Amino acid sequence: MREYLDFYIDGRWVGPVRPNPFDVENPATERVAGTISLGSAADVDVAVAAARRAFADWSQTSREQRLELLEAIITEYRRRASDLADAVTEEIGAPPALAAGPQVGLGLAHLATAIDALKNFAFSEQHGATLLAREPIGVCGLITPWNWPLNQIAVKVYPALATGCTMVLKPSEVAPFSAYVFAEILDAAGVPAGVFNLVNGDGPGVGTALAGHPDIDMVSFTGSTRAGVEVAKIAAPTVKRVTQELGGKSPNIVLDDAGFADGVRAGVANMMPNSGQSCNAPSRMLVPNSRMDEAVAIARETAGQVRVGHPDDKAAIGPVASKAQFEKVQRLIQTGIDEGATVV
Length: 344
Fold this sequence. Notes:
Elements: E1 2-4, E2 7-9, E3 12-14, E4 21-26, E5 31-37, H1 41-58, H2 63-79, H3 81-92, H4 96-120, E6 124-127, E7 130-133, E8 139-143, H5 149-162, E9 166-170, H6 177-189, E10 196-198, H7 203-212, E11 218-223, H8 225-235, E12 241-246, E13 251-253, H9 260-269, E14 284-286, H10 292-304, H11 323-338
Parallel strand pairs: 1-5, 8-9, 8-11, 9-10, 11-12, 13-14
Antiparallel strand pairs: 2-3, 4-5, 6-7
Helix pairs in contact: 1-7, 2-4, 2-6, 3-4, 3-6, 4-5, 7-8, 9-10
């Protein structure tokens, strides 16, 4: 049983301003796997103040200093890779091969990409009599989802570090374990106090406070379109930068040619990794009407070959990430049936 009740603020693990424990379930067992604290606006205030103080020095660091830190993070990340994989399996039910492979591996790959980009990034360019200078924007509020927890943390935290920004991270309360280990990695790597801060919590309690905080200069949010609209509205009065990656339904067009059968098989197979919980999953297959029956037969056969089960039995796919997500999927299936769809 994991007990992650503290937040990482100003280089230390500190308790929440007001205790508010929250049980996190392992979706594979439907049992409580650990407890975190849900933060509040008061905790966000403390973390943002730490990030603001740290920005004065971190924003002035050299390219070489930032590269040295990122290289140190690589070392610690590799050392804790198995711990990260265990955390991902426990929080979202990912099979070990998926957790130790793409889920953890993408976090490392994005780090290598950040290092390569930083080595040659042009922070200033001369255009005739004009000097174009790119400067750190300031304190960043980073809000990440549960489906690819480490990947989404990585694509926000590493660029912020590389460009001289400080930050407050709110990982999903559904999948907070890997973020906690990630914070331990950054601490062990020597990230200066206040540069990286982690506050666990839900959207109303912490996400809203981050989006509207006057001392946060930029919010980066990945999640649902509904929540993204709210983030943009809340951020608007403080005129901060807002970048978002929001939900959608990816169309997959299979053409009427010799590769039709292979295209249908590939479309179904590519839906299955991570239990279909990926922004790039080809979740809408469009086929010629004249070949609909054929596509249905191929899709049924392909889906029938996929193993589903507990992560420990090396199944091809595990559960969806939470009971709430499972119930949402069931509602959507029923809506489709009510509107005339056929379950294959």
